[in-house]
Amino acid sequence: MYIALGTVAGLGVGGVLVPREAIAMIIAPDSLIASVVALGLSIRVVGGSIGNAIYSNVFYNKISTHLPEYIVGYGVKAGLPLTSAVQFVRVLLTDPTKIVTVPGVLSGIRWTGESTDEAVKGQVKTGNMSFFSPWFDN
Description:
Helices cover 76% and strands 0% of the residues. It is mostly helical. It is elongated and about 75 Å long. The two termini are 19 Å apart.
C-alpha cells in the first residue's frame, strides 16, 4: 500500500511541477528565463518549509500524546506494576541503561526483560502511528 501511495504522490508531484516550470520557461522572455526559474524554485522551497513545519507539528503532537500511553500499556501487560509506570516511561525515554533501577522491572533475582521488550513494542507502534498520521492530517 505504501509503495502505491508513494508512486501516486511521485506522479502527482511530477505532473504538477515539471509542466509548470516548462510552461513558465516557454512564455517568459529570453532575458527573464533564469529569474522565472529562480522564482518558481523559491516558491516551491517556501511551500516545502511551510509543509515541513505543519508535518513536524502534527508528528510531535501525535508522538507526545501516544508514546507514554503505549509504553505503559505494553509494559503493564508484561507485568510492570502501575505504581512504577511514570518512572518507567521517564527512564526508558531518557536513559534506558538504568531501566533495571525502576521498581517492578526486576523479577525476583533474575531480570526477565519482558516488560522492557513490551515497552519497546509500544515505542515502535507509536512511531508507526505518528509517521502515518501526518499524511492524512495535512
